[in-house]
Amino acid sequence: MVRAHAGKLATRSGNHNSTGNLRGRGHYLRDIIVTATCAAICGAENWGEVECFGKAKQPWLRKLLRLPNGIPSQEAIGNVFELLDTQQLREDFGYWLMGVGEVSRQCSETFSEDVLRRKHQKDLALGSIDVVSIWNTNNGLALGQNVVHGKSNADTAIPELLTRMELSSCIVTLDTVGCQRSIPQQIMNQGADYALAIKASQGRLHQNIRDSFSSARRTDWNDLDAEYAETVERSSTGVEKRRCWSIFQESELARIQARRDWPGLRCVAMVQAERGLGERSDGECRYYISSLPGDAFQLVRAVRDQWEIGNDVHWLLDISRLDGGERRRRDNGERNMALLHDLTLDMINAEGSPGAAEIKRKRAGWDDEFLRRVLSR
Fold first, then answer.
1. Short-list 320, 324, 293, CA closest to 309
2. What is the C-alpha separation between 51 and 359, in angstroms, rounded?
3. Is the Cβ–Cβ distance between 265 and 257 less than 8 Å?
4. Alpha helix locations (H) across 85-189?
5. Which residues lie closer than 8 Å to 5 by C-beta, 6 or more apart?
6. What residues form DSSP beta bridges with 226?
7. Model confidence over 212-226: pLDDT tens digits?
């Protein structure tokens, strides 16, 4: 489709059948990394084997991890490791495994379920992951927590979490807390685009964007570089229609930029959602600033899942893929699988008992107590 210019508002539409939403399909990032590590200790060499190990050992893993929705699929596990920066994974490996061996030892003792849960929550405090929610919505995978202990903590946690991600050819969608100039600049430095949700708490910025769209509608979008798209999704919970208007005219962006100089800003967007089931319906409207070029259809798809899960978390960071970059991402996943093999080999060698490493890998798969000892190294 050719983008509209000089007063013509272009339109795109899409019709999608949804099999459900993202709620109830979340997996914690720590759970995935620890599960993959345990699988690698036991000899897993690909993400399918990691999934198979996880399902076979799920009762034991539940003593160590939260696993609110069981073991994720091999596609979801692979997708996560494709996003994780290899160097950061190496540097943070000890952080992710912190306390796992100790909790494993405690779980072999006799604790009531309530006491174990309290000890588990205390011993496995997740630092930055406790205060920021990160989601990858290409395959319905959710990572992170539901609470944050103060805005200042989230301000620090988001840059740290972004650093751990391989973001090239991705769209990162942030909700409210991410609206600081340093964060979109970091996103762009890592080769990604951003879409930042702007709410009323942003004061003048929010009002300026609202004024831009109000003025555009009053003038019927005349002499304005803009685009329109809509999507309709049908599921068992009803029909949801999303409409997106984007403005990418330089004069409008310059006016908005006057308040704060947002790096890479290329468009502003207004997205309206209407949900209906039978005779009942409701709707709301949100505003965004983005480094994307103003393609309304791309924008409405980028913010779709972030909107859906945004009601369930306080601070939200969503990563979705742009077209392209697949070969590089697969290579990154393969590098991370090789890294897990190397790191777990070091753990096996550090365990101290006699025997060849490959024999110890098999023993760890057969003997949960031996696997716990390896994890404790």
1. 320
2. 22
3. yes
4. 86-96, 100-107, 113-123, 151-163, 182-189
5. 225
6. 247
7. 999 999 989 988 899
Greatest extent of the chain over all pairs of C-alpha atoms, in Å? 80
- Closest CA relative to residue 103, chosen from 30, 173, 39: 30
Sheet bearing 133-136, strands edge to edge: 10-17, 226-235, 238-247, 267-277, 280-290, 193-198, 170-175, 316-321, 133-136, 141-144
User: What counts of helices (H) and strands (E) characterise the chain?
Assistant: 15, 10
Q: What is the pLDDT of residues 101-130, one digit of tens each?
A: 544 433 333 222 233 233 333 333 333 333
271-309 as b/e: b if 16+ CB within 10 A: bebebeeeeeeeeeebbbbbbbebbbbbbbbbbbbbbbb
Q: For residues 177 and 80, what is the distance between their CA atoms, to the nearest angstrom? A: 23
Of 98, 92, 50, 57, which is closest to residue 74 (Cα–Cα)? 50
Lowest-confidence region among 114-123, 139-148, 299-308, 315-324: 114-123
Task: Locate all alpha helices (DSSP H) within the chain, ordered by sequence.
Answer: 29-41, 47-56, 58-61, 74-83, 86-96, 100-107, 113-123, 151-163, 182-189, 204-218, 250-257, 296-310, 326-350, 357-366, 368-375
Residue among 324, 322, 314 at smallest CA distance from 290:
322
Residue with the two structure tokens 């468009």: 267
d(Cα 242, Cα 51) in Å, to the nearest integer? 35
Distance, CA of 257 to CA of 265 (rounded, Å) = 8
Residue 15 scores a pLDDT above 80: no
Residue 84 backbone phi and psi in degrees, to 5: -75, 130
Residues 347 and 373: their CA atoms lie apart, in Å, by: 9
